Amino acid sequence: MNREEKYILLLTQYGHKINVHCYLYARKDKVLAQDYVQDVLAVLWQELDKLHAEAGTIQSWVWVWLIMRRTLSRNRRDRRVKTVPLETPKEEPSVFFPHGEMDEQMLVSLLSEEEQTLWREIQKGYSVGEVAEMMNLSPHTVSQRLYRIKNKLRKEMQDR
Protein backbone atom coordinates (compact mmCIF):
# COMPACT_ATOMS: atom_id res chain seq x y z
CA MET A 1 0.00 0.00 0.00
CA ASN A 2 1.50 3.34 -1.01
CA ARG A 3 1.46 6.56 0.99
CA GLU A 4 -1.61 8.11 -0.66
CA GLU A 5 -3.71 4.98 -0.26
CA LYS A 6 -2.73 4.72 3.39
CA TYR A 7 -3.68 8.39 3.93
CA ILE A 8 -7.05 7.99 2.18
CA LEU A 9 -7.80 4.86 4.22
CA LEU A 10 -7.04 6.74 7.45
CA LEU A 11 -9.28 9.61 6.40
CA THR A 12 -12.17 7.34 5.47
CA GLN A 13 -11.93 5.53 8.79
CA TYR A 14 -11.20 8.46 11.11
CA GLY A 15 -12.21 11.58 9.16
CA HIS A 16 -15.56 11.89 10.93
CA LYS A 17 -13.93 11.56 14.36
CA ILE A 18 -11.34 14.18 13.47
CA ASN A 19 -14.09 16.57 12.33
CA VAL A 20 -16.11 16.04 15.52
CA HIS A 21 -13.10 16.49 17.81
CA CYS A 22 -12.00 19.64 16.00
CA TYR A 23 -15.54 21.05 16.10
CA LEU A 24 -15.81 20.46 19.83
CA TYR A 25 -12.29 21.72 20.45
CA ALA A 26 -13.13 24.91 18.57
CA ARG A 27 -16.15 25.33 20.88
CA LYS A 28 -18.55 24.83 18.01
CA ASP A 29 -17.04 27.58 15.87
CA LYS A 30 -17.33 26.10 12.37
CA VAL A 31 -14.70 28.30 10.72
CA LEU A 32 -12.13 27.65 13.43
CA ALA A 33 -12.99 23.94 13.37
CA GLN A 34 -12.28 23.84 9.62
CA ASP A 35 -8.91 25.46 10.24
CA TYR A 36 -8.16 22.89 12.93
CA VAL A 37 -9.15 20.02 10.63
CA GLN A 38 -6.86 21.33 7.88
CA ASP A 39 -3.97 21.65 10.33
CA VAL A 40 -4.51 18.13 11.67
CA LEU A 41 -4.70 16.67 8.16
CA ALA A 42 -1.50 18.44 7.17
CA VAL A 43 0.35 17.05 10.19
CA LEU A 44 -1.06 13.58 9.56
CA TRP A 45 0.28 13.72 6.00
CA GLN A 46 3.70 14.89 7.20
CA GLU A 47 3.92 12.22 9.90
CA LEU A 48 2.39 9.39 7.88
CA ASP A 49 5.70 7.58 7.43
CA LYS A 50 5.93 7.16 11.20
CA LEU A 51 2.73 5.10 11.35
CA HIS A 52 3.74 1.46 11.41
CA ALA A 53 0.38 -0.02 12.38
CA GLU A 54 -2.23 -1.15 9.89
CA ALA A 55 -5.11 1.25 9.26
CA GLY A 56 -8.22 0.20 11.15
CA THR A 57 -6.37 -1.05 14.22
CA ILE A 58 -6.49 0.49 17.65
CA GLN A 59 -2.83 1.49 17.29
CA SER A 60 -3.59 3.54 14.19
CA TRP A 61 -6.48 5.32 15.94
CA VAL A 62 -4.27 6.11 18.95
CA TRP A 63 -1.61 7.46 16.60
CA VAL A 64 -4.15 9.69 14.82
CA TRP A 65 -5.66 10.80 18.13
CA LEU A 66 -2.28 11.74 19.63
CA ILE A 67 -1.30 13.75 16.55
CA MET A 68 -4.70 15.43 16.56
CA ARG A 69 -4.50 16.38 20.26
CA ARG A 70 -0.92 17.67 19.95
CA THR A 71 -1.82 19.74 16.89
CA LEU A 72 -4.98 21.15 18.46
CA SER A 73 -3.22 22.16 21.68
CA ARG A 74 -0.41 23.82 19.74
CA ASN A 75 -2.94 25.67 17.58
CA ARG A 76 -4.97 26.87 20.54
CA ARG A 77 -1.81 28.13 22.25
CA ASP A 78 -0.65 29.88 19.06
CA ARG A 79 -4.06 31.44 18.35
CA ARG A 80 -4.54 33.00 21.76
CA VAL A 81 -5.68 36.52 21.28
CA LYS A 82 -3.95 39.20 23.24
CA THR A 83 -6.56 41.29 24.98
CA VAL A 84 -6.44 45.04 25.28
CA PRO A 85 -8.15 46.78 28.18
CA LEU A 86 -11.22 48.73 27.12
CA GLU A 87 -10.11 51.84 28.95
CA THR A 88 -6.46 52.66 28.72
CA PRO A 89 -5.04 54.24 31.85
CA LYS A 90 -4.36 57.92 31.49
CA GLU A 91 -0.69 58.76 31.41
CA GLU A 92 0.75 61.37 33.67
CA PRO A 93 0.81 64.75 31.98
CA SER A 94 4.20 65.42 30.54
CA VAL A 95 6.19 68.45 31.53
CA PHE A 96 6.03 71.07 28.82
CA PHE A 97 8.51 73.88 28.41
CA PRO A 98 7.53 76.69 26.07
CA HIS A 99 11.08 77.97 25.42
CA GLY A 100 13.84 75.67 24.19
CA GLU A 101 16.74 77.63 25.72
CA MET A 102 15.03 77.80 29.04
CA ASP A 103 14.67 74.03 28.94
CA GLU A 104 18.41 73.52 28.82
CA GLN A 105 19.12 76.04 31.54
CA MET A 106 16.46 74.56 33.78
CA LEU A 107 17.64 71.01 33.17
CA VAL A 108 21.27 71.92 33.89
CA SER A 109 20.39 73.81 37.05
CA LEU A 110 17.96 71.25 38.48
CA LEU A 111 19.20 67.87 37.36
CA SER A 112 22.40 65.93 37.80
CA GLU A 113 24.29 64.80 34.70
CA GLU A 114 22.88 61.30 34.92
CA GLU A 115 19.34 62.65 35.35
CA GLN A 116 19.83 64.93 32.35
CA THR A 117 20.96 61.99 30.23
CA LEU A 118 18.02 59.87 31.34
CA TRP A 119 15.54 62.71 30.67
CA ARG A 120 16.94 63.43 27.21
CA GLU A 121 16.76 59.78 26.18
CA ILE A 122 13.14 59.55 27.30
CA GLN A 123 12.36 62.77 25.41
CA LYS A 124 13.90 61.25 22.27
CA GLY A 125 11.23 58.56 22.48
CA TYR A 126 13.17 55.65 23.94
CA SER A 127 11.22 53.36 26.27
CA VAL A 128 12.11 52.84 29.92
CA GLY A 129 13.46 49.39 29.06
CA GLU A 130 15.67 50.76 26.28
CA VAL A 131 17.01 53.54 28.49
CA ALA A 132 17.67 51.02 31.25
CA GLU A 133 19.69 48.92 28.83
CA MET A 134 21.65 51.94 27.57
CA MET A 135 22.48 53.12 31.09
CA ASN A 136 23.09 49.63 32.56
CA LEU A 137 20.29 50.04 35.09
CA SER A 138 17.19 48.04 35.87
CA PRO A 139 13.93 49.26 34.33
CA HIS A 140 12.56 49.74 37.86
CA THR A 141 15.43 52.07 38.75
CA VAL A 142 14.91 54.08 35.56
CA SER A 143 11.17 54.38 36.32
CA GLN A 144 11.88 55.61 39.84
CA ARG A 145 14.41 58.16 38.67
CA LEU A 146 12.11 59.32 35.91
CA TYR A 147 9.33 59.81 38.44
CA ARG A 148 11.65 61.91 40.64
CA ILE A 149 12.81 63.97 37.65
CA LYS A 150 9.23 64.71 36.64
CA ASN A 151 8.40 65.77 40.19
CA LYS A 152 11.41 68.13 40.28
CA LEU A 153 10.43 69.70 36.97
CA ARG A 154 6.75 70.00 37.93
CA LYS A 155 7.64 71.65 41.20
CA GLU A 156 9.91 74.11 39.41
CA MET A 157 7.15 74.94 36.93
CA GLN A 158 4.62 75.48 39.71
CA ASP A 159 6.98 77.79 41.57
CA ARG A 160 7.33 80.00 38.51
Cα distance spanning the termini: 89 Å
Instruction: Domain count, please report it.
Output: 2
Instruction: Please work out how many helical segments DSSP would assign.
Output: 7
CATH architecture of the largest domain: Orthogonal Bundle
Shape assignment:
rod-shaped
Class by alpha and beta content: mainly alpha
Describe it:
By secondary structure, the protein is mainly α. It folds into two domains: 76 residues, Rna Polymerase Sigma Factor, Chain: A (Orthogonal Bundle), CATH 1.10.1740; 60 residues, Arc Repressor Mutant, subunit A, CATH 1.10.10. Helices cover 71% and strands 0% of the residues. The protein contains seven helices and no strands. Helix 1 packs antiparallel against helix 2, helix 1 packs across helix 3 and helix 2 crosses helix 3. The longest helix is centred in the N-terminal third of the chain and has 23 residues. 15% of the residues are buried. About 3% of the residues have low confidence.
